[in-house]
Design goal:
It is a single chain. Helix content is 17%, strand content 41%. The chain has two helices and eight strands, in the order βαββββαβββ. It has an eight-stranded mixed beta sheet with strand order 2-3-4-1-5-8-7-6, covered by helices on one side. A hairpin with a 5-residue loop joins β2 and β3. The two termini are 16 Å apart.
Length: 127
């Protein structure tokens, strides 16, 4: 299926508190991934196509207002085409195309309802 949800991010103010909470509520464990204020949620499976989550510090949000909710990333075939569609249909690009090494090309945008959404052209989908 095209345009599947592939990643979600939960913003935190206290990483240890958030890890403790989600570890107890959902039985999640966490992997170090990059800086100390960013953790990948470990679901215990090896499937590369799985939904992947992250806990990340609020400094990574792109808006001045506090994000309440979960930031979702959708897998897309062509991130440039999606960026054009966002702009042509009343959305606002917040983060222009950015490459994440070994992962893919990402844009972040605000939809017409004020939600922050991400679109990622994963390198594994280009093969």
């Amino acid at each position: 299926m095209d345009n599947q949800l592939r990643h979600f991010a939960i913003f935190t103010e206290d990483m240890e508190r958030a890890r403790s909470f989600y570890g107890k509520v959902f039985n999640w464990s966490f992997n170090a991934y990059g800086p100390s204020d960013f953790s990948q949620i470990n679901t215990g499976t090896e499937d590369n196509k799985q939904l992947i989550g992250a806990l990340q510090d609020r400094k990574y949000q792109l808006t001045k207002e506090k994000v309440i909710g979960i930031e979702c990333s959708f897998s897309v075939k062509d991130v440039d085409a999606v960026a054009k569609l966002v702009q042509d249909n009343g959305g606002q690009i917040l983060l222009p195309k950015t490459e994440i090494p070994k992962v893919g090309r990402l844009i972040k945008f605000r939809d017409t309802e004020g939600n922050i959404v991400c679109a990622m052209q994963y390198f594994d989908s280009e093969q």
